[in-house]
Amino acid sequence: MEITFDGGKVITAHMDGGHIIRTDQPIYGGGEDTAPSPFDLFLASIGTCVGIFVKSFCDQRKLDSSGIKIIQNIEYGSSGLPEEITLDMKLPSDFPERYKAAVINLAELCKVKKSIVSPPVFKVITSENI
To answer: Dihedral, CA atoms, 55, 60, 66, 68, nearest 10 degrees?
Structure first.
C-alpha cells in the first residue's frame, strides 16, 4: 500500500488491486471535509467487518438480510479515544430465533476487532524517496 499527500489535508491510500481510499479532515481540523477522516474510516471498518460476516452467514443459509441493520455506538473517554463500542444488530422480527446467538458470535470473527483486541507491533521508519 502506498500513501500519497494530495493537497490540503487529503491523504490517499493506493492499495494493491487498484483500490483507492481517500481521506480528508473536517473543516475544524483544517481540511475541507471532502472525504471521511482516517479515524472515521477506522471506526466504520469495525461495523462493516461485522456486517460482512453476518451477510455471508445469511447468504449461506439463504436468509434475507435486507432488513438487518447494525447500529454502532461509541462511548469516548476523557482522552477522546473509544472506551466502549457497542454493535447493536437490528434483526427483522421474522429472523429465525435459532440463528440469533450465531450472529452475535460472528462479531468475534471480525479481523478488525481481533486486531484491536490483539494489536500488532507498529514500526515507523524513514528511508530516502528515490
So the answer is: -50
Distance, in Å, from the CA atom of 114 to the CA atom of 18, rounded to the nearest integer, reads 26
Dihedral in degrees, nearest 10, Cα atoms 106, 92, 87, 115: 30
75 pLDDT band, cuts 50/70/90, is very high
Q: Is residue 129 part of a domain?
A: no
Is the entire prediction scored with pTM above 0.90? no
Structural contact between residues 24 and 32, judged by C-beta atoms closer than 8 angstroms: yes
Considering the domain boundaries, does residue 126 fall inside one?
no
Q: Which residues of 7-35 are buried (b: 16+ CB within 10 A; e: fewer)?
A: eebbbbeeeeeeeeeebbbeeeeebeeeb
- Cell 457497542 belongs to 86
- Confidence class for position 106, pLDDT limits 50, 70, 90: confident
Residue 73 and residue 111 in one domain: yes
Query: Max Cα separation, the chain?
Result: 59
